[in-house]
Amino acid sequence: MKIYFANALFSQAEINYNAALAQKIRQLSPQIELYLPQENGEINNKQAYADSKMIAQADTQKLTSSDLLVAILDGNTIDNGVASEIGVAYANKIPIIGLYTDSRQQGADNQAKLGALSQIAENQFHYLNLYTTGLIKLNGQIVNNEADLLKAVQQHLR
Known about the structure:
Blueprint: E1 2-6, H1 12-26, E2 33-35, H2 41-44, H3 52-64, E3 68-72, H4 80-91, E4 96-99, H5 111-116, H6 130-138, E5 140-143, H7 146-157
Parallel strand pairs: 1-2, 1-3, 3-4, 4-5
Helix pairs in contact: 4-6
């Protein structure tokens, strides 16, 4: 099974997280062939040069030949590249698992947090673009922790 792993890859924290989670996914089964864009030095060695067309062609080829997209949705907004990859996967009917771990999704039944929604600049919850999340939900699912992500990946192995 070919899996494409989509997340930002520009800070050391993102690179480390991607590598750690990719390792957990790879350990699920020897059947898994996971593409982690940051490991593709031809286009993502930031000391070298790859233009926008080279990056788009290389990653799109890997994505469209994949059986599953794992997309990390965390951050102030969904990473622009990840959002594009979600659109490509949806258009090509590739199942998508989104991972959204933002802690601000907690407390949905807390009346004080709900009441703050009516006050200017007091939203206690994080917002994700509904069009992008809708594409995921139409062709997959969104989970909020790594354990559920790994279970969802395993279900696609069957």
